[in-house]
TrEMBL record:
This is Enoyl-CoA hydratase-related protein. Pfam families: ECH_1, Formyl_trans_C, Formyl_trans_N. It comes from Streptomyces chengmaiensis. Residues 42-141 form the Formyl transferase N-terminal domain. Residues 171-253 form the Formyl transferase C-terminal domain.
């Protein structure tokens, strides 16, 4: 069928639905719903058999839904209505939720139901992580079922009962507000996680107004409620009445008439406002029983090491790259045969931190430093020849983050992942040794096509291309355990030693033909040419991306940033 996706943002869910439908043979096109909403003439131009809206913040006009069947993905179970469904569910502490695919009618979320899917809500997971994980899995399942039912021509969607509907308005900042002098840590965390990463919780701090983005429990530090106690790798620790929480990111409230603001590491956002509090590095190997937050951790199970990392939005600045490289070098001193890279769930990596670059006094210099730091990390993985390295992608990966994964010997990918192994939409030629690793995996022709077309790739399609070596069919909560079992089998396999030996010999042969330093120098020369040119599209594209504004020069079907 010809399926048209209309979306207010080409975010992780929109990309996931596009990939799932394309993998099943449907001809899928994408039409952005900009500030003016869905345009009837734009829909008519595509002449679709079916319209699907994975993420839509504006109502579909009657001129469209009366002419075409339009399926809306609502992140709530049947009967739930309203624009803040997921936020309210998380702030209310539900342990089970759902996704509904319903038909567009004159009233929002009131149309007949074509399909639905339910899921468990894991404890302690923020909204953005849940959205890219369990919500996306349930949405993909429900959309595929709804499309199958529509294509059959025999299915009648189930009308909703107005009397049974739970209708809630947009969740205001007043409803999200934290009372630091009265609320326990558990309540503060629910509020923070329900607003992560958008819109954040509006709060006053150090004489300014900020949206607090993300929250993690601290199990040791205490102090006067509401006060800042410490910093850790860009995050700030703030006291509650019975403990404290780590807040990784802040976004300044936009002043009238001023440009849109964007999220930054909390300590960087506060700048000179930050009081003289101690910097307390996160423990790489925390003692058993500790629940403090750290964005990089190392664990061992027998002959397998696990270097786990999780950065907000999957973005990696200079500090993230250098700390991860330091931890990687520590991991290499351990007596393991297999080293697994990647977090337990959510993003693997999306490459360089465009927000930190945009906020820098010299964005060109910060861009160069960030790329150099990413290259150092990727080169360390490529030159590891005494053990096997596995990149375990629990969540999505893009640009330099995708190339970090390709530096490993094997790439294992959760079935719900979406990969964007390209740089073109940010006006960049790319680095992280992609000119060496990508053609080596998929061939020169496919590598060129991936870079040129700049389309998202599903886990299954990536397996077919050779981008990944294994797809792990499981939900987000089960991925880490399945990877651990597979890694232990790999470490105990009879062929392990011969594989490590063959890997070392292959690296030596490749180095003799063309040193890694040459690949790196050639890529960096092109990248520096972009960074140092103030007229290069990269600078305008970067600025628009971090502010979630339309990106000049990008095709309209792709002109929507990841949430």
């Amino acid at each position: 069928m010809r399926v048209l996706l209309v979306a207010s943002a080409f975010n992780s869910l929109s990309q996931r639905v596009q990939c799932e439908l394309r993998d099943r043979g449907h001809a899928v096109s994408v039409e952005p719903a900009g500030r003016g909403g869905v345009r009837p003439d734009a829909v008519a131009r595509h002449a679709p058999d079916l319209v699907v809206a994975p993420m839509l913040t504006a109502a579909i006009p009657e001129e469209v839904w009366s002419a075409y069947t339009c399926l809306i993905v609502h992140p709530g179970p049947p009967g739930d209505r309203g624009p803040s469904s997921l936020d309210r569910a998380l702030q209310g502490g539900v342990d089970r939720w759902g996704v509904t695919v319903l038909q567009a009618v004159g009233e929002m979320d009131a149309g007949p139901v074509w399909a639905s899917a339910a899921f468990d809500v894991p404890a302690g997971v923020g909204k953005s992580d849940l959205y890219r994980g369990e919500v996306a899995d349930a949405a993909a399942e429900a959309v595929l079922l709804a499309v199958e039912r529509f294509s059959s021509g025999t299915y009648a969607p189930v009308p909703q009962s107005p009397a049974a509907a739970s209708v809630f308005p947009y969740m205001s900042q007043e409803e999200r507000r934290i009372d630091w002098l009265r609320e326990p840590t558990s309540s503060v965390l629910r509020r923070l996680r329900a607003a992560d990463s958008h819109p954040g919780v509006l709060d006053r701090l150090l004489g300014g107004e900020w949206y607090l983005c993300g929250g993690h429990e601290e199990d040791t530090l205490t102090g006067p409620p509401g006060e800042l106690l410490a910093t850790r790798h860009g995050a700030v620790c703030r006291a509650t009445v019975d403990g404290a929480v780590w807040i990784p990111q802040l976004r300044p409230r936009r002043a009238p008439g001023r440009p849109a603001t964007f999220k930054l590491p909390a300590a960087l956002a506060l700048g000179d406002r930050l009081p003289a509090v101690p910097e307390l590095p996160g423990p790489l190997r925390p003692p058993a029983g500790r629940s403090t937050w750290s964005d990089i951790r190392y664990e061992e199970q027998g002959a397998v090491g696990f270097l786990r990392f999780s950065f907000p939005g999957g973005a990696m600045g200079v500090d993230h790259c250098r700390r991860l490289l330091d931890a990687y070098r520590v991991a290499l001193t351990r007596p393991t045969d297999v080293l697994v890279l990647g977090g337990r769930r959510d993003f693997f990596s999306n490459g360089i931190h465009l927000g930190v670059i945009e906020a820098a006094a010299d964005p060109a210099a910060e861009s160069r430093a960030c790329i150099e730091a990413m290259d150092d990390l990727v080169e360390a993985v490529l030159t590891t020849t005494d053990r096997l390295v596995v990149a375990a992608l629990a969540g999505n990966a893009a640009a330099g983050g995708a190339m970090l994964a390709l530096a490993a010997d094997e790439v294992w990918c959760r079935s719900g992942c979406v990969l964007n192994p390209h740089y073109r939409l940010m006006g960049l030629t790319g680095s992280e040794f992609w000119t060496y690793t990508l053609p080596r995996r998929v061939g020169a022709a496919a590598a060129g096509r991936l870079m040129r077309e700049a389309e998202p790739v599903s886990a299954r399609a990536a397996l077919g291309l050779g981008l990944v070596d294994r797809v792990v069919e499981c939900g987000p909560e089960d991925f880490a355990a399945q990877v651990a079992r597979s890694a232990e089998r790999l470490a105990s396999s009879a062929a392990l030693r011969s594989r490590v030996g063959a890997k070392k010999a292959a690296r030596e042969r490749d180095e003799a033909v063309r040193p890694l330093s040459d690949w790196r120098a050639e890529e960096l020369k092109r990248m520096r040419g972009v960074f140092d040119d103030p007229e290069a599209p990269y600078h305008a594209l970067r600025s628009a991306f971090v502010r979630k504004q339309p990106r000049p020069g990008v095709p309209t079907t792709l002109d929507m940033p990841e949430l």
